[in-house]
Each structure stands twice: as C-alpha cells, then as structure tokens.
Amino acid sequence: MFMRSVVVHSGMLDDLVAALQTGVCDEAAALRLYALGSEAVKLALLAAARRIAEQAARIAELQTRPAGDLSATTPATPSGMIPVYLKANVRGKDAEATDRRRRKRPGGRHGHPGHRRPAPLRIDRRVEHRAACCPDCGGALQRCNRRRTRITEDLPENIPPQVTEHTIHRDYCPNCRKDVEPGVPDALPGATLGHRVVSFASWCHYGLGVTIDQLIDILQFHLQTRLSAGGLVACWQRLADVLAPWYEQIAREAKSSAHLHADETGWRVQGQTCWLWCFANGQVCYYMIDRCRGSPALRKFFGEAFEGILLHDFWSAYESIDVADRQYCLVHLLRELEKVDEQRAAAPHATDDGWHTFAKTLRRLIRDGIRLRKRPDFSPQRYATRIPRSPCASMRWSGMCSTTPPPDNPSIATPCGCANACAAPPITSLPFWTTPPSPLRTTSPNA
Known about the structure:
Largest sheet: 5 strands, mixed
Low-confidence stretches: 1-8, 421-447
C-alpha cells in the first residue's frame, strides 16, 4: 500500500508540474498541489520559475531582433507566411532603381508618337451642349460657329436583366416508347440563371477574387439581378460538373509534357489552410488544391514518376518524385547564395574554406545563362549547337566543382547540394529552355 501511494503521489506531482510548465493551473490543481506537501510545492515553483525565465528570454530576443530579420525563415518558406512587418525594405541597387522609376516624368519622350485610348467604332448617342450665358460673369454671349467634339463611354443608367420564359413541348416517341423534350441551350440543366450570369459570376469570383457578398451587391444593385449566396454556389457546382472532363484532360496533358514547372502557395478553404499547387508550361496550366504540402500531394498528381523534366525550387517534397531530369530554380539558388554570404559575414570566426570562390563562380555562371536567355536574338535553333561546345562555361563549371567547399557547414549544405545534384544547372538549363513542347495542345479553359 505504501508503494502504491508513492506511485500515485508521484504521478499526480508530475501532472501538476507539467500543467504549470504549460501555463495551465486552476484553483483545484493548486489545492491538490498544496496537499502533497512542501517538497511538491517547491518542485512546482521551480518549474514555474523556469518557464517564466524561458519566456522572458524569448521575449527579450524578439524585442532585440531588428526589423526585417528573417533568420527563422528558409528559401522554402512561402512569402505569404512571412509577416509584412518582418520583410526587409528595398535597399541597394533595387532601391536606386525604384527611386529612378519614381523620378521619371510620366509619358513618352519628346518627339515620340503619343499613345491614347482608341476612338470607338460607333456612336450610339449625340448630345449638343451650348452655354446660355457666360459662366464667369453671367453676361450674354455672341453665337459663333466654333465647336469641338468630345467622346465619352459609359454604362447605361439601368441595365435590366433579360427574363425569358421557355415553353418546352413534350412529345411521345413511338420508337423509344417514352416522352421526350428538347433541351434548353440558354442555361445549365436545372438552373434558373443563364450562361452569361454564371460565366460573369465565376470569372469575378475565381478569376478576380471578388467575394460572394461583394458579387451579390454588384449583381443586385448594378445589374438588377437578385440571387443568394447558395444560388451562386449551386450554379458554380453545376459549372464545375460540366468542366470536369476538360479539367481532367488538362491534367493528362500536363503529366505527359516534356517539361513542367511546379510550385505551391497557401490557400484558404472554408477557414482551413490548404495548398494551391500549380503545374504549368507554355501549353497547359493545371491547378490542384490539397490539404497536404508534402510528397503525398505530388504523388496524387504525378503518381510514382514523371517522364519529363521537372523545374522547381528547393522544397524537399519534390525530391520524392522520380523524374527523367530536374532543374532547380536559379533565382532561388541565387537567393540562397546571398543568404549564406550574409550568415558568414555575421559569423565572428568565419574561415576561408573555398566558399567565396565557389559562390562567385556559380553566381557568375548562373547570371550568364539568364542573360543569354533574355537576349532578343535568342532562339533554340541558333544556340542548340553552341551550348555543348562552350569551352568557357565548361571550364568554369569544372573549376567550380574542383573548388566546391565541403558541406559540413549546415548553412552551405543547400546550395552546394543543389548545385551538385543539378549536374551543372546553368549549362543544362539551356537545353531545358529548349525542350520540345508537349505533343498535346489544349484549347480548353483552365478549370
């Protein structure tokens, strides 16, 4: 009995101490703690003091952290998950370029042809304007033959909806032995709203991001069309059923493409955090919303493998897909290099382990490839035979690989590992840019 009592008291004490450490303790828990004796109270107070000290140190660290410090983030952190007050201000060359754009005078240069809104092709209404008296002094006016024209475009004051009553005749078919009737081409089956209203509402909500309440106000007050939120959602569900085959076709064409860009961002669905995945190239663009940001979502789309070239950032979930080849995002790699430079500059005892030479060569090689792609005379056919024979790029990449620092430092593991895994990403990226398009071309709208 004594041992059982000790075990029970020890378990109760552990629960009370854990409650204090998590900041949860009520009056009943305090009375139970007092009943266990002075030793239990002492242990509980020490646990509470430890928790208070840890919280105070954390608060002091956050208060002393400068604005714009993103040390807790990684290149894989979506920009939408970083608070606005933690994002750094534009500095250096980017700030100077922004200031130059702001100081530039509006309009084109002197002597260049002007640009203005084109004149409409038709005139619906003409209105004459003549002043009855002088607007400044109120005196009489002498009528002249001088005049000028001014064209304005506006919406009608009242845009009444077009209400149509469809009389559907039902006839008997002796061959099928049943009553048949024609379909109504102006609306979806079972819908009371026409195609134009449904298309306009879908484009405003899903294309422009107009909320349902705002969309109802637009339709009711400006277009004089009364409807409810449930009616809108029901129309969109019917439209989704109609577009489902096109949506699946775009998915099949994306998975059979020669190359595909992949990215993801946060997406809220009914108050829950989900992820919007995008898989696109020059021919198709496929969106998928999933609760998962990891490899299960990618396997849901690709399956086990992708027989093309996958272009993505450093998010580790993309590594779980077996692909024919992959290309890492060069912009993300440049950002990672800058981040490592800042971390090494802030380190008190940074050693020269070859990182500076490695980063400089890799940065120049990547930027040369990006500048080559942006040249106005660039074409896949023109540079297809020059890329394999480029001695400068090959020698620079070979020299860089020979000076790659050992990635025992966690801060340089990501850029070094991705650079080695890419197998010379700036060089191989040029063929990636010239990958042949998918043999399938879709003309369907993006679902």
